[in-house]
Amino acid sequence: MKTDLEIQKNVIDQLRWQPILDAAEIGVSVKNGIVTLSGLVNSYPKKLAAEKAAKKVSGVKAIAEDIIVHVYPEKQKTDTELAEAVANALEWHSAVATEKIKIKVEDGFVTLSGEVDWSYERTMAVHAIENLAGVRMVVNTITIKARPITEDIIKKIGSAFQRHASIDSEKVKVSVSGNKVTLSGTVRSWSEREDAEDAAWAASGVSQVINNLVVEEEEYAL
């Protein structure tokens, strides 16, 4: 098992590997496998890139993300200008049903709400706007419209896990209550945990996914 010091070093190295990031801007601390990222960056994409990079490191059990986005004055937009830019970005994205999504902007924080038919629509709405200049944070409160859930949903999710190279399907358990899917068990990495959740969201009829998967680093014999 990796020590906290080893995980910290690996996370810092991973941050340095990202072209978009200046690793010196981001602080990394680790306690019991839980990584805390801190610091000040000048764009929301950098904040996302730092978090994504840390999740790729083996041994990371969870991430506490305290990075603050400070937009340079020359790139800062008024909330009205940013709301217009967000609306236009959503309008131009073919995978987003703009008529179903509401936008709220306050001090650079963008909140999306509404109800869509599929999880990918919810995800694509965020992807469409997260790189816009002036965005400090995206809060996604869009919900998935509940539909009749099929009886073989557990089998279908299990099959999706088996098709996914990064997921050890034998260690992930799926339970269903109404339109809610709960995942439990263990995974080998934070990325595997996210992949399992994404696969569950893709199943027809799912309106909520509770991810209780625990990240446990594999032990290797010497």
Summarize this structure briefly.
The protein is of the alpha/beta class. 33% of the residues lie in helices and 28% in strands. The protein contains six helices and eleven strands.
Can you tell me about this structure?
- This protein is an alpha/beta fold.
- Helix content is 33%, strand content 28%.
- It is built from six helices and eleven strands.
- Strands 4, 5, 6 and 7 form a four-stranded mixed β-sheet that branches. Strands 8, 9, 10 and 11 form a four-stranded mixed β-sheet that branches.
- Strand 5, helix 4 and strand 6 (137-140) form a beta-alpha-beta unit.
- The longest helix has 14 residues, at 79-92.
Task: List the main descriptive attributes of the protein structure presented here.
alpha/beta; single chain; 33% helix; 6 helices; 4-stranded mixed β-sheet
User: Residue share in helices?
Assistant: 25-40%
Query: What is the CA-atom radius of gyration, in angstroms?
Result: 19 Å
Mean pLDDT across all amino acids? 88
> Helix and strand succession?
HEEHEHEEHEEHEEHEE
For the report, how would you describe the main beta sheet? 4 strands, mixed
Q: Uncertain runs with pLDDT below 50, 5 residues or more?
A: none
Structural class: alpha/beta
Specify the number of helices. Answer: 6
Distance between the termini: 12 Å
**So what's the overall shape?**
flat
In terms of DSSP E residues, the strand content is 25-35%
Tally of DSSP β-strands: 11
